[in-house]
Design brief:
The chain is of the alpha+beta class. It has three domains: 185 residues, Aldehyde Oxidoreductase, domain 4; 330 residues, Aldehyde oxidase/xanthine dehydrogenase, molybdopterin binding domain (Aldehyde Oxidoreductase, domain 4), CATH 3.30.365.10; 140 residues, Aldehyde oxidase/xanthine dehydrogenase, molybdopterin binding domain (Aldehyde Oxidoreductase, domain 4). It has 19 helices and 29 strands. The strands form seven sheets. Strands 3-5-1-12-9-10-11-20 form an eight-stranded mixed β-sheet, with helices on both faces. A hairpin with a 4-residue loop joins strand 25 and strand 26. The longest helix has 27 residues. The protein is globular and about 85 Å long. The chain starts with 19 loop residues before the first helix and ends in a 7-residue tail after the last helix. It binds pteridine-2,4(1H,3H)-dione and dioxothiomolybdenum(VI) ion (MOS). Dioxothiomolybdenum(VI) ion binds next to loops.
Length: 768
């Protein structure tokens, strides 16, 4: 194992994840663990078994007659709008006349038990006239079938620039979808309250989306619906928009029957009915000068949006924002086509279209490197973003760390020695080959939709001095609650056990953006910090008055009040008591909206991101050239955490994101039959990385940096960016294959499964 230098950041003691105790004891509560009220009904979704067609007959009579079945709801039972589209209203909750994808919901069965509801489902008869099924984005594009208009980001003039380039290369690239595979499947529990009000406990990243959509579908005001989220057993984007239909269905049945309703998807139902990461079919053209500077880059992305828009237009936009990854390119033209197909609507997935865009420019660079007979890292290094460079969307790059992470990674991980090691190994071994690749990442932090960048926090100091916090943040295993608790406990000078994070609830914090875009800790943390600051100001006034002073410096440390540098005679608890006796409010509600950001969609220019996160990974793999199997020797990263406020949690995000990125690039192969049926519909046919297929060595060095003012405590967002280090594994594998088979023509068709590796090792243009 290669030695790494640990900076003092890693030595800083921080709070351990506050959920770890109940998680390991199995005591953490998820929707399915809630104590059910008497009379709770169980729901199972009826879905269509056809990729595209016209629904002629829906016969529920046999199902309804089964003992224990209470009711079956379909589109005609919806009292409000049968519409759940978030950005574009193009998605019914229950199919009406048309079926647009295999697994589309047609109705909901309510029964005394889940088993009965399931049995009833097998008795439902549907007659559907089939229509042609489209599963590929390029097919949809050829037909002009889009979920939203194509968009183009442009900088400079690519046409002119290509004409003057010393080298121009063209190619194509494909990246497949990805199943979210959250441990906790989609689900919700809806309970009737008085006066027709409903409380929904949902496993959602977007409590307000659930509330808004339930109100629309039920045709009642939002204030009649309360949405609570305890925590999620993983989201990864799959519960940003697509937790909504199940919660709304439960609410609909609850509303109609005045009974509590529980709807939890089985793993098979979840895999079949929900959308995934978008597959992309792309073409690229890259032009370089004699010094390997990329002068022009043109790309067309065909996004496989599935049967409805869902979040696809926003995801398409983020592809364009990340089309040039960590590089400055003076002439860019990038176009994305959100293509309507007959797959389940694809949706947010960690990286939100960014990884798909970044894979294409890395493919273009790899293609150029192969044709020029040089390592790709020479081209990568020659084009890294520098201070004051402009992105194609008009934002000026500031506090750029692309080069710093790159050079630190090269030095710390001894790139030259590793290259020599790979060369020596490959010379000495006939049937095993090693490959090496570098992967720089640059990821913009903020919702690309400016209006979504806000959050609120509600803080109560209770009479006994303990503190309760509510924010819009949803805990999904990423540790946001721990970070929130850390902020409040540091601000008030209280031990962690005196601060509690409440479940996320729309009656305490309203009109929330989803917990997404890596921005949850920043947005909610900033709001929380403001609320704590306001309360401290109020308490400081009480302390100063109590001390009989006009003015003094007041600090809050270790449950003590420090006045002008001295421990004051009232401690925290006594000061709280004093404030109460003076009728001072000990509650505060604060709002935060990211400053500085803006974007003009008519010009496709602006300053959409609060800041960028940077990093570089060095990746080494070994391919078994007899079997096509491979191992990842090491992934070594210099990552820009800013000033990490919790090294343990942030490291967990880096390693988890990396593993997920590697899975997307190497093993996870979503497969649909031409008729639209999901073939990779179980964990026997859909492979995710396990401990044995992960890297043998993972090294992470925090970049020595100053952080960013718009990051909470200068601790940069960490949720999504590390996933993209995994892209480098694809290219390391390509390099190893090339070392074995000089006739192999590099291809950019992810995931690079062992089967594909084996075929590539023996591919020969001569024998076909
Ligand atoms: N969700 C969203 C996201 O609605 N907008 C975004 O920009 C975004 N980015 C990453 C992940 N989720
Ligand atoms: Mo997301 S892809 O829900 O941040």
């Amino acid at each position: 194992m290669i030695e790494t230098k640990k900076t003092d950041l890693q030595a800083k003691p921080t709070l351990q994840n506050i959920d770890s105790f109940t998680h390991v004891r199995g005591e953490s509560l998820f929707v399915d663990d809630m104590t059910m009220q008497e009379g709770t009904l169980h729901a199972v979704v009826i879905d269509a078994s056809i990729g595209h067609g016209e629904l002629k007959v829906l016969d529920i009579s046999k199902a309804l007659a089964l003992p224990g079945v209470v009711q079956i709801f379909t589109a005609s039972d919806v009292p409000g709008e049968n519409q759940i589209g978030g950005i574009i209203p193009d998605e019914p909750l229950f199919a009406e006349k048309h079926i647009h994808f295999w697994g589309q919901a047609v109705g909901l069965i309510l029964a005394e038990s889940e088993a009965i509801a399931r049995e009833a489902r097998s008795l439902v008869k549907m007659q559907i006239d089939p229509l042609p099924v489209v599963t590929m984005a390029s097919e949809a594009r050829a037909k002009g079938s889009f979920v939203s208009d194509p968009r183009t980001f442009e900088l400079g003039n690519v046409e002119q620039a290509f004409a003057g380039c010393a080298h121009v290369f063209e190619g194509e690239s494909f990246s497949n979808g990805q199943e979210h595979l959250y441990l906790e499947a989609q689900g919700a529990y809806a309970v009737p309250m008085e006066n027709g009000n409903i409380k929904i406990t949902s496993s959602t990243q977007g409590p307000t989306a659930v509330q808004r959509t339930a109100a629309k579908v039920l045709g009642i005001p939002m204030h009649k619906i309360e949405v609570e989220v305890i925590r999620l057993g993983g989201g990864f984007g799959g519960k940003e928009d697509q937790a909504t239909p199940w919660a709304v269905m439960a609410a609909l049945a609850c509303h109609k029957l005045k009974k509590p309703v529980k709807l939890i998807l089985s793993r098979h139902d979840d895999l079949r009915m929900t959308g995934k990461r978008h597959p992309y079919e792309s073409i690229f053209k890259i032009g370089l000068d004699e010094n390997l500077k990329i002068i022009a880059y043109e790309a067309e992305f065909m996004q496989n949006a599935g049967a409805a828009a869902d979040l696809s237009p926003a995801i398409a936009e983020r592809t364009l924002f990340h089309a040039t990854n960590s590089y400055f390119v003076p002439n860019v033209k990038a176009t994305v086509y959100p293509c309507r197909t007959n797959l389940p609507p694809n949706t947010a997935f960690r990286g939100f279209g960014g990884p798909q865009g970044m894979f294409v420019i890395e493919s273009a660079i790899a293609q150029a490197a192969d044709k020029l007979g040089i390592p790709a890292h020479q081209i990568q290094e020659a084009n890294l973003l520098q201070e004051d460079d402009v992105f194609s969307y008009g934002q000026i790059a500031r506090q750029v760390e692309a080069g710093k992470t790159w050079h630190q990674a090269k030095t710390a991980f001894k790139l030259q020695e590793q290259e020599a090691l790979v060369a020596a190994f490959n010379a000495a071994n006939k049937n095993k080959k090693k490959g090496l690749a570098l992967m720089p990442i640059t990821f913009g932090i903020s919702f690309t939709n400016t209006r979504m960048n806000h959050a609120r926090a509600l803080v109560h100091i209770y009479e006994d001095g303990s503190v309760g916090i509510s924010t819009a943040a949803v805990e999904m295993g990423q540790g946001v609650n721990t970070k929130m608790l850390q902020i409040a406990s540091e601000e008030f000078g209280l031990p962690a056990h005196k601060v509690k994070l409440e479940p996320t609830n729309t009656t305490r914090v309203a009109n929330t953006s989803p917990s997404a875009a890596s921005a949850t800790a920043d947005l909610n943390g900033k709001a929380l910090l403001q609320a704590c600051t306001a309360l401290k100001k109020r308490l400081a006034i009480v302390a100063v008055e109590h001390a009989g002073l006009d003015k003094a410096k007041v600090a809050f440390v270790n449950e003590q009040i420090i006045v002008n540098g001295e421990v004051y005679k009232l401690n925290w608890y006594e000061l709280v008591e004093q404030a109460l006796s003076q009728r001072v409010s000990l509650s505060e509600n604060s709002h935060y909206a990211t400053p500085e950001i803006h974007f003009d969609k008519t010009k496709e220019k602006g300053h959409p991101f609060a800041y960028h996160v940077y990093g570089t990974a060095v990746i080494r793999v070994t391919v078994d050239c007899v079997r096509g199997r491979y191992e990842i020797d090491s992934v070594q990263m210099v990552h820009d955490y800013g000033k990490s406020m919790n090294e343990g949690i942030d490291l967990g995000q880096v390693e988890g994101g990396l593993a997920q990125g590697i899975g997307w690039m190497t093993l996870e192969e979503i497969s649909y039959a031409p008729d639209g049926r999901l073939l990779s519909n179980a964990l026997s046919t859909y492979k995710v990385p396990d401990l044995f297929s992960g890297p043998k060595v993972i090294d992470t060095i925090p970049l020595d940096t100053i952080g960013h003012e718009l990051a909470i405590r200068k601790s940069k967002a960490v949720g999504e960016p590390p996933l993209m280090y995994g892209i480098g594994v694809y290219f390391a594998l390509q390099n190893a294959i090339r070392a074995f088979n000089p006739r192999y023509v590099p291809k950019f068709h992810a995931p690079m499964t062992p089967e594909k590796v084996l075929m590539s090792l023996y591919e020969s243009p001569l024998v076909g």
